[in-house]
Amino acid sequence: xxxxxxxxxxxxxxxxxxxxxxxxxxxxxxxxxxxxxxxxxxxxxxxxxxxxxxxxxxxxxxxxxxxxxxxxxxxxxxxxxxxxxxxxxxxxxxxxxxxxxxxxxxxxxxxxxxxxxxxxxxxxxxxxxxxxxxxxxxxxxxxxxxxxxxxxxxxxxxxxxxxxxxxxxxxxxxxxxxxxxxxxxxxxxxxxxxxxxxxxxxxxxxxxxxxxx
Length: 213
Known about the structure:
Elements: E1 3-8, H1 12-24, E2 28-34, H2 37-45, E3 52-55, H3 64-74, E4 79-84, H4 89-97, E5 102-105, H5 110-123, H6 129-138, H7 153-162, H8 168-175, H9 179-193, H10 198-207
Helix pairs in contact: 2-3, 4-6, 7-9, 8-9
């Protein structure tokens, strides 16, 4: 079964070009293309739920940043990757905190977009070299802070493994627990750290000193 992808971008030519490109990738199918967040909501509300949603940030009517909380509530299983021309460090970090699992610049090569889709499908997130650089910059000493989180030993062990490139299934094997138990750890840690994605959790873990780079 192919992985379904949706595109949300107000630039029609860009969206159509991306749609044609993704249709050429093996195992991917474009479910819908929307020109803004409002159109995206309408598509999802009639039952079109993509596995991966590629989201632009700067759009009229309802921009990408406004879409992220709505998607967390109404399409939590959909993994969102930001595709934007915006290189602002603060906005990149904010989008990750709001639930995006990857961030790719519009000037990227088709091979990088393909890699991003594959890693999001297989691992649940994508750390591009650019995203990694911006996250490291956001963690410089002046931005670090002491953590207020009360995590037990099992949650800390889960957190450290979740900050690696292991899948959740592999983390379950490492901890000798069931995947459902790992899902429980994830939900508890997300709630305690007030984050909405694995990438956001890793970012906060490093910023708070719970995990070292």
